[in-house]
Each structure stands twice: as structure tokens, then as C-alpha cells.
Amino acid sequence: MRTATIERNTKETQISLTLNLDGTGKCDIKNPIGFFDHMLQAFCKHGLFDLKGTLKGDLEVDQHHLIEDTGIVLGQCFEKALGDCRGIFRSGCFLYPMDEALCRASVDFGGRPFLVCEPQLTGIPLVSLGPDGKEASFQTDCFEDFWQGFVANSKCNLHLDVIRGRSDHHKIEGLFKAAARAIRSAVEIDERRKGEVPSTKGVIV
Q: Cα-flanking dihedrals φ and ψ of residue 27, to 5°?
């Protein structure tokens, strides 16, 4: 099985994640940020990844540390589970419509980390209610921080673009779903490749 467990413990965050690339879309994470949890649930459901674990961080400072570090740990899980990338398709692209928003994700697990992120967000936090009934929010400026952490540690090349859209909720959710489908396509096993490394160099660098 292509699985990985990674823990990250710092003075700012304590994160533990277990990933199964060949799952059924189950997401069981103790996550204190409601909208962020919704996005990880969507990522797993549409990517057919199984993910479980716990996320804790210094939310009294802000959400940046926890969201970015979750991206780092998730990226490390992907790198460990993929190993030398032998037999996978390696790249994938998906265009996802989310009501009025049209979102595109393109990814290549080619060993050269690079993020191009054009989500066209307003920067206004998304406001909701927390489990205690008090007002909570999602810092939309942390969206890119999450994916930067993921890209740097999974060593993939990822482009995220909103082609058009109005709602920040739809833009972010559409991009998470598009990324999930693109990544799913990239990491699936290509039977025609017969276990070879998907690179003319013979190695993913």
C-alpha cells in the first residue's frame, strides 16, 4: 500500500497525518478551523485519498502557522507515499466548475517544486460559527500558504487558477476540488508504464 505517516511538532504547531493514496475518500481529522476542515474533506472525497490525524496550533496568533504547516506535512506524506514515483502517470490537469466559479489545477510530480497561484480572492475572511457558537473565520490569505507548503514538500509543480468567479468560498472550494482531481490523476498507477520511472532521465529529480 502507498501510505505514509508524518508528525510535525514545533513551538507553533503539533500535526500528525496518515495518508493512503489508494483510498476511498475518507477524511478523519481533528481540525479546529471549520472551513479548512471542509476543504480537506473535499480534497479527500474528490481525490479518493484517505487522510486521518490531528491538527493543533497557536490560533491565538493567527491561522497562518497551522494552515501552512498542514500543507507542509501533507506534502511530506505525498512524497513519502510516492517514493521514487515509479509507475505513476506523474502529471494531471482538471477543470472544475463550482457554480459561477471556473477553477483549473495542473500538477507535475517531476521533482521540481514550483507554485503558481492565481485564485483571484478578495482577501476578506470567510465568517462562520465555531463549535462553541462564537464567531469564527477562515483567513483566505492562508490559502496560498497551504499550497506553498504542499508544493515545497511534495516536490511537485502546481498551477492553480480561477478563470472566473465571484464567491471566495466557491473559488477556494473549486480549486481544492480541481487540485484533488489533478493530483489523483497524477499519482494513479499507469499500467502501461509497467513500473518504470516516468522520466526520460530515468529518475525524478
A: -130, 115
Phi/psi of residue 3, each to 5°?
A: -130, 165
Q: What does DSSP assign to residue 133?
A: S
* CA distances to 12, 181, 198 from 95, in Å: 35, 9, 23
CATH architecture of 3-193: 2-Layer Sandwich (3.30)
Averaged pLDDT, groups of 10, the chain, 205 residues long: 96 98 98 94 98 96 96 98 97 98 98 98 85 76 97 98 98 98 98 94 90
Cβ neighbors of 60 (< 8 A, separation 6 or more) are none
- Identity of the amino acid at 138: F
Cell of 159: 498551477
Domain boundaries, the chain: 3-193
Identify the burial level of 127 via C-beta atoms within 10 angstroms of its C-beta, where 0-12 means exposed, 13-18 middle and 19 or more buried.
exposed
pTM of the model as a whole: 0.96
